[in-house]
């Protein structure tokens, strides 16, 4: 089976002469269809940098990133933006919703921009509204709903075009624990039912325990990876804590 996402010897260096910082030293990984993968590690380990480089937001200094077998370096700007719109979904900590649009309008925006038919848009909206349980609030505006509801709206928008790959950077970072659990349960059902492939950066062991596999990075390199397998979420949570403890650093930074 071909990986959906593949990185080979990815290196990312910030700055220039005299003031150079290596955020990613040498990362190689493969993500397969239907995986739900977490990226964890101490603050400054390079998690967001890795997600940005894997998700086309940023370019590696060297090394290759391939999505569905396509080398991202071979795409021009126009092709890349179509590719992003059709194949990738992005969810960030700070929602990025447009306050002047209702939640419904925010969610359907990617399909409306891509000029899909009304019937098609309604069908997709129906699906995401169920996955993220937001049907009753679709006509509200972002300023009228909670952080958890905003994030479920942002997640609905990210998946409405049925992307191959969903990238989430600290999606639960601003949520209370109940809202975080609701969102993560929705990610799990999306992953189980639609076989969506999800890659999520989190510093939170609870959030990570919903994943099927976790990559731990430190100092810009993969330290280790673990699979949930047949473990319960609670057992997996404990295993994550054990690794974080071995990883060292300030535990307050990473749990
Ligand atoms: N644009 C930039 N210019 C220079 N250095 C940067 C830039 N972005 C990130 N860095 C540095 O690269 C390193 C990795 O940053 P990154 O944001 O990927 O870490 P992280 O693991 O996501 O951290 P956190 O959990 O605190 O968000 C950090 O030391 C950071 O200061």
List the helices and strands and how they pair.
Blueprint: E1 5-14, E2 21-31, E3 36-40, H1 47-54, E4 62-67, E5 70-71, H2 77-87, E6 88-92, H3 103-113, H4 118-131, H5 147-159, E7 165-169, H6 177-193, E8 197-201, H7 205-208, E9 213-218, E10 221-227, H8 233-247, H9 251-254
The chain binds adenosine-5'-triphosphate.
Proportion in helices: 25-40%
- Annotated CATH homologous superfamily: P-loop containing nucleotide triphosphate hydrolases
State the domain count: 1
| The CATH architecture | 3-Layer(aba) Sandwich
Bound molecules: adenosine-5'-triphosphate
Order of helices and strands: EEEHEEHEHHHEHEHEEHH
Radius of gyration: 18 Å
Q: Tell me the total number of β-strands.
A: 10
Strand order, main sheet: write it out: 6-7-8-3-9-10
Beta-strand residue fraction: 15-25%
Q: What would you call the quaternary organization?
A: single chain
Span of the ends, CA to CA: 34 Å
What is the overall shape? globular
Class from secondary-structure proportions: alpha/beta
Question: What is the average of the pLDDT values?
Answer: 92
Number of helices: 9
